[in-house]
Amino acid sequence: MSENTQTSLSWPFREAERIAERLKQKGKDHALFETGYGPSGLPHIGTFGEVARTSWVRKAFTDLTGLPSRLLAFSDDMDGLRKVPDNVPNKDMLRQHLGKPLTRIPDPFGKFESFGEHNNNMLQDFLRAFDFEFEFASASDYYASGRFDAALLHVLAHHDAIVNIILPTLGSERAATYSPILPIHPRTGVVMQVPIDKVDVDHGTVFWTDPETGTKYETSVLGGNAKLQWKADWAMRWYALDVDYEMSGKDLIPSVKLSSDIVRALGKEPPVTLTYELFLDDKGQKISKSKGNGLSIEQWLTYAPKESLAQFMYHAPQRAKRLFFDVIPRATDDYINNVAALPTAEKPHDNPAWHIHGGKLPEHAGSPIGFGMLLNLASVINADSPEMLWGFIRAYLPGADAESYPFLAKLVHHAIAYNRDFVAPAKQYRAPTEVERGALLDLAESLKAGEQATHKGDTPAEKLQNLVYEVGKRHPFAPLKAWFDCLYQVLLGTSEGPRFGGFIALYGVERTVALIETALARG
User: Fold this and answer.
1) Which CATH number applies to 434-522?
2) Judging by beta carbons within 10 Å of its beta carbon (0-12, 13-18, 19+), is residue 96 exposed, middle or buried?
């Protein structure tokens, strides 16, 4: 364990320290990390966030302790299908199977043995596409194989204690019928939410009555003949598998508390948990699937590479963040800046890029040109093909191509798409004020004259940035930020942009002068 690791302030290492302390207290020499899924729908951007964050904590745990660990991706596929999803075929067929476990319903897509198996395969393909390291687990398999039998008998023995934990959280009507045990109907195959008339701990069975026919049944809780209500199910899984770490969203805080209380009632301590904040839309409202006011992972990956999404997920997981299209450029440039800073960082473990890449940057990671810079270039030249951008890039970086700069090549494609769909439609130029007009003329003349405001060792972009600063200082801007607002709004038609000196270096001095003259003529 390095000194940098010991003194890291990054949140994954703080979480790793909590897990290490848990293992020390329990006398364990390995850790089990878990993430859980409800497989009635397809994987989404929140799925990525939870697995990515858990993976970062796991990597930090490995570096901190040197102990082995596993990440279990657990699918709650024994859940009964509550409603037919909107995005599937054969809806009429699915309606005939409402209430049954997902793994006992035919696949509406006709590709797998069951709907649950279809969605489980989608989940695994999704996780592998992002190179996550995980072991997959199916609730149906664990229940049916008997792997949970001992824990289920233990739950049955503590049935009344679990009921007493849950009852205070329920309304009177629900409380009258609550039991943590959900028997599977032997005739219909439906997961039954019915009162339990009697619990037989010795035989591992429960007695219940079919509310429609009045038929009385005795059902074993073993071998997949019953499952648990999900709060009790979550707790049973923690107990049975001895889970050490699991994170979940803010909306599950009450469930985490109840499941933790149930685990204690069963005789074990709950895992270390982390609550992450939920995402907000562009208006600051909570994202809702039903409202459709969020941003899908497919949409994000249309406009930026997956590393930028990881950067967005890494930053401040316990703080609410807007998840909308306008956060994509900033997240992308934050990632690029972190990659550039990592090789010389005194504490690399505090750099998000270290976590995103599992402690080792891949070859050709990062980009010599920022995403915001590419977006402004694409906007100014109305780029609709990669070659239009590469022409400017090669002038800025002689000999540059997609093979030598593969990440930059990805950014070029993303910049064209983002500019087409968001920047170009929103461009709105304004006329300069008299003060701004004078400053823009000054900048144009200074660029023509080759004037430089520089320090020894400055790059061409830094020299041009210093010149832009000096021109702004020669005019009555208060604050100086107003000068840069003028450059973006008058010249580029945008509300913000990258360092303008870097843009001049990429776009070219002569073209920038022409851009200024065009804007002044327009205004």
Assistant:
1) 1.10.10
2) exposed
